What does this fold into?
Amino acid sequence: MSKDIKEKFALADISLTDVQIEKMETMIGFLTEYNKNVNLTAITDREGIIEKHLLDSALPLKLYSLKENAVCLDIGTGAGFPAIPMMICRPDLKFVLLDARRKRTDYLKLLLPELGVCAQEIIHGRAEEVGRSAKYKGRFDMITARAVSDIATLLRYAAPMLKKGGVFMAMRGAKDELDGEVKKTAERLSLSLDREIVYNLPGGDGRRLILFVKTSYSNPKKV
Ligand code: SAM
It folds into this structure.
């Protein structure tokens, strides 16, 4: 049965071990069951979950080379995307999972022990509030956000929490191009646009990965 997971990832040149495949399988089963009572995702077919959640989440780590043991935050993680597939593929990464909706963080607290995967922390809260806490200032090597809010807003949330040299990774649909306003906001927050990568999932859906790097420790008070 799990052959389809292995094959789908292989199409994106990602080779999974048997243990990783088993964890992906557990994620599919858990998500499918839980989603019957609590709305976590509109994608409910097995092939869709494999391609549009699991592979879509893991693929950016093929496109951006993240250092070992990086400390990461996933803003608006929902049912754990992209963080959990990234953690399965890269067990060295130390993720904090953040979502504003309690039913989603409750789900993650049940899922992680099933997977045998450890997060540094699961936070029920809003990124704009968490970002103001001294505990998270300049803490992260990478901050991800997939399908959350507009990019300028996300940059404001993420900037104070990134280390110097840390990267903010926005995962969007291919058509979601950056406008001049976003670039100006980034500059004011000491974030420099590192690269934009447009690519397709094996099934043809277009994706855009946008990477900003934090160039200085200073954070303007208001942007
Ligand atoms: N990233 C997941 C994915 O790709 O499947 C979930 C995407 S879902 C469309 C957006 C998620 O962001 C929701 O779970 C929502 O609760 C969360 N969210 C929106 N604004 C947020 C904020 N300011 N702080 C934390 N979470 C937020």
About this structure: The mean pLDDT is 96.
